[in-house]
Amino acid sequence: MNSTTGVEITPSTSMGEILSNFPSAKRALFQKYHIGGCSSCGYSLEESLENVMINHKRDKEVNNAIQYIYESAEVDKLLQISPVELKQKLDSGSVIKIVDVREDWEIEIAKLPGSEVITQQLAYEILNKMDKNTEVVFYCHHGIRSLEAASYFKGHGLPNVKSLKGGIESYTMEVDSSIPRY
Q1: Is there a contact between 15 and 48 (Cβ–Cβ < 8 Å)?
Q2: Region 40-62 average pLDDT
Q3: What's the mean pLDDT in 7-14?
Q4: What is the pLDDT of residues 148-161, one digit of tens each?
Q5: Can you give the pTM of this predicted structure?
Q6: DSSP structure class, residue 136
């Protein structure tokens, strides 16, 4: 059982259940086993983890895959910052680059004060021109896309990147109710 979610994965657990409880599983399975990243290595959400592993000729690695999914959830937990923690850091004067990874229509509805919208130019600057130790917090609506962004930038050598846990939705509910919900 995973200490992060309190949810147990078994070989018969459906991929839908796994991805719902462990969003990092999609990235983890692709990185380690090349499962789920394209049409030739895809799976359906109704399939069990065991069937997916069998279909990809990895039937002897089911238990290893379960452990790897648990480990990836722990890594993702470390990549997240709660809305309250972010607000406390900002209030204390910490310099944090806040980057919005949502679509234009979402940004029109609501945004965090002082945030910048991700563009190719901004991504380039973050990766190539910015001090690597700058704190960067990515956010989206619910914290899934921003976790992907934080993982990407962390993997490219930025040690102080975070994803806003629960996204702008949680920030609105926990910190600033004046930000519109959608």
Answers
A1: yes
A2: 94
A3: 96
A4: 899 889 989 999 99
A5: 0.78
A6: E
Structure tokens at 134: 């700058």
The helix or strand, by DSSP H or E, that contains position 29, with its residue range, turns out to be: helix 24-33
How many whole angstroms from its chain centre is CA 145?
6
User: Letter for the amino acid at 130?
Assistant: M
Pairing mode, strands 116-117 and 161-164 = unpaired
DSSP 48-64: BHHHHHHHTT-GGGHHH
Q: Say which residues have a Cβ less than 8 Å from residue 81's Cβ, sequence separation at least 6.
A: 89, 137, 162, 163, 164, 165
Q: Which CATH architecture has domain 80-174?
A: 3-Layer(aba) Sandwich (3.40)
Residue 96 pairs with which residues in a beta bridge?
Answer: 135
Place of tokens 């949810």: 7
Closest CA to 18 of 81, 64, 61, 66: 66
Asked if residue 28 lies in contact with residue 69, where contact means CB atoms within 8 angstroms, the answer is yes
Domain ranges of the chain: 15-77, 80-174
pLDDT at residue 104 in the model: 96
**Identity of residue 36:** G
Question: Would you say 85 and 78 are in contact if contact means Cβ atoms under 8 Å apart?
Answer: no
